[in-house]
Amino acid sequence: MIKIAILGSTGSIGTQTLDVVERNEDLQVVGIAAGSNIVRLEEQIRRFHPRLAAVGDEKKAAELKSRVADTDCRVVGGMEGLLMLAAMPESDILVTAIVGMIGIRPTVEGIRAGKDIALANKETLVTAGHIIMPLAKEYGVRILPVDSEHSAIFQALCGEEPSRIHKLLITASGGPFRGKKREELTNIKVEDALKHPNWAMGQKITIDSATLVNKGLEVMEAKWLFHMDLEQIQVVVQPQSVIHSMVEFVDGGIIAQLGTPDMRLPIQYALYGGRRRFLPGGRLDFAKLGSITFEEPDMETFKGLPLAMEASRRGGSMPTVFNAANEKAVGMFLNRKIGFLDIYAIIEDAMKRHKVIENPDVDEITGIEQETYRWIEGRW
Ligand code: NAD
Ligand code: MG
């Protein structure tokens, strides 16, 4: 039996993880956590019988506690509750499907408690890769990628020597505005940006896909996960989202992982630590597909990618500023306070005024996050 705790069980990745669990008799959920959606959490408690449920919002935690008083699920709240869930003795693996930098502390806690990490929360490696990767090595735990691109690379590397990698080719759909120029993006509406051509995901990551910030975060994540130099990572636009990413080896051979856009595959692959199981669902039909096409990313229009590269190249606390500024800006865009292109302007501004701290610890990272938020609030 593989025992699983899920941080962010009510979200897009969280609910798909539960779907995978439900289909496999040797997977069991022992803990779930979410921000505030206690209606969904109650449903999940009654269906999956976890031992522990954590709610980010303390008030909602108290409410959930009385709602599920008839079950034997213990309810805890706040950051302390999330940390408790991350380290719960009953689990083997922690799925980090929470959105935002709030995922860092529970991930650190999970690693220290010896849990393998099925990592969906990309903010963790982007901002704290220099802490997480050595810590995972020290505690002998595996960081198993859930993001489809990183899972594709993980799958392509099966049986290969890491020293024989020449470069990673991370694929991108290009998002809903692929082919558009800057002038055409001024009046983009929230509804349009939320329409991803191929993947159904949470709101924040869907906007990040439209700005290409998501691809930038993925490049930074891949750098840590696979111990690569930034120069060894290339982004290739592949609009049909059929190739999930590729690895080029020193002999020129390239291995790609293909499939329909279904996150349950990388989730399941991670939960089983890189072993395959049957997964029902659509299969690729090449004759129907007809063609797979490739393009270069338009870095002039979609500045999310070059700004991410710049932040990553500078390193230290700069990726935290990039990420925090983007989180804030995306929230403001979703609340219709700023336009689409302002997201880039805010990130660029925040990065320009930041004085980099080398090797920031977790407290410094969260401090810089809050400081970046406040600075943006005061200006926009
Ligand atoms: P989502 O918005 O659908 O879900 C987020 C989850 O986090 C919810 O369960 C929410 O309750 C929880 N959460 C938010 N704030 C919280 C808090 N303060 N305390 C406790 N829980 C809190 O997001 P998602 O699309 O599932 O993405 C989750 C993460 O996975 C993100 O980092 C995203 O970049 C990454 N990711 C998602 C996909 C995808 O297909 N959705 C693919 C690759 C990577
Ligand atoms: Mg991805």
From TrEMBL:
A Gene Ontology biological process term: isopentenyl diphosphate biosynthetic process, methylerythritol 4-phosphate pathway involved in terpenoid biosynthetic process
Gene3D superfamilies in the cross-refs: 1.10.1740.10, NAD(P)-binding Rossmann-like Domain
Binding positions (NADPH): 10-13, 35, 37, 121, 123, 202
What are the residue boundaries of the 1-deoxy-D-xylulose 5-phosphate reductoisomerase C-terminal domain, all occurrences included? Answer: 143-226
This entry's Enzyme Commission designation comes to 1.1.1.267
DXP reductoisomerase C-terminal domain span: 258-372
Alphabetized UniProt keyword annotations: Isoprene biosynthesis, Magnesium, Manganese, Metal-binding, NADP, Oxidoreductase
Cofactors demanded by this protein: Mg(2+); Mn(2+)
**In what pathway does it function?**
Isoprenoid biosynthesis; isopentenyl diphosphate biosynthesis via DXP pathway; isopentenyl diphosphate from 1-deoxy-D-xylulose 5-phosphate: step 1/6
- EC class, as a word, reads oxidoreductase
Give one GO molecular function term: NADPH binding
Kindly list the positions annotated as binding Mn(2+): 147, 149, 218
Q: Which residues bind 1-deoxy-D-xylulose 5-phosphate?
A: 122, 148-149, 173, 196, 209, 214-215, 218
* Record-stated family: Belongs to the DXR family.
Q: What is this protein called?
A: 1-deoxy-D-xylulose 5-phosphate reductoisomerase
What organism is listed for this UniProt entry?
A: Blautia pseudococcoides
